[in-house]
Amino acid sequence: MSLQYLKDAVASNDSEKLIRYVRLHLGDGNEAAGRKEIDKAWIEALKLLLDVPATDREFINEALREKDAATLAHLFFYLHFYFVKRSGEWIHDGTL
Amino acid sequence: MAPSDDIANEGRQLRPGLWATINERYPGSMITKDDFVPLARLKKPLSESRLTFISSAGVQPKGTLPFDVAHPVGDYSFRRVPSASTLADLEIHQIKYPTHGALKDLNVIFPIERLQELAAESVIGGLAPNFFSFIGYQMDPERFERTLAEDIADAVIAEGADAALLCPA
């Protein structure tokens, strides 16, 4: 989708168009695959926290406090791919 | 010459079916431009021309910042790839096309050794110091043209290339 297509969707609050784009992006052009990929990333993240391991809360708080929203959004996409890769079910052909 | 034999001057889309497929998957991503610019003609024989290579395959020298394949709107940067590089110097950062073959032999997508051979055999006049590489996933065609395409074009001219071989991944 072109950027203008996405901006028009934002302007008209067309969430379906926007989430469809996210699914297509994460599923390499396959919306159903993208939906599964999103689920896979969240499941992987959840699994890591079930035993309540010690985590670096200071890092999290500092990142949320100090970094701008666009950087965090960018990181959000990277984290998606990180957890998908960590799951061991890598559907993409290339490398990050 | 029949119009169908002169793509450079006609600007015809070679694979209209591909456009339909891509627009179905990524609506609005394939655009038509009215300001068609014909391809430039060689000013001297190929055997005297210094060639550069421009690729959207996401090939880059090891140790350079990986292309941003996660960004939802694309990466508008490019990498210079020294034309004297060996295959061991290079790697691919891209997840939008099948790279199995390229990982076995990078020449299938980025034929650097073949071009080095053509230069050594004087089939072409030589190679520019650098080739140019980016990833072919950009959702903002205006930004693509204004930044990435213009920057690469400027760099190609600055490096004294007489011709550029364009190769989409």
Structure description:
The complex is a heterodimer of chains A (96) and B (169). Chain A is mainly alpha-helical and 96 residues long. Chain A has one domain. Chain A is built from 5 helices and no strands. Chain A has helices spanning 3-11, 15-26, 31-49, 57-66, 69-87. The radius of gyration of chain A is 15 Å and the shape is globular. The mean pLDDT of chain A is 93. By secondary structure, chain B is an alpha/beta fold. Chain B has 2 domains: 1-33, no CATH class; 47-167, no CATH class. Chain B has helices at residues 7-10, 16-25, 100-104, 112-120, 141-158; strands at 50-55, 59-61, 79-82, 90-92, 126-127, 130-133, 163-167. In chain B, the strands form 2 sheets. In chain B, strands 1, 3, 5, 6 and 7 form a 5-stranded mixed sheet that branches. Chain B has a two-stranded antiparallel sheet with strand order 2-4. The longest helix of chain B has 18 residues, at 141-158. Chains A and B meet through α1, α2 and α5 of A and α5 of B.
Q: Notable features of this structure?
A:
heterodimer; A: 96 residues; 0% strand; B: 169 residues; alpha/beta; 2 domains; five-stranded mixed beta sheet; 7 strands
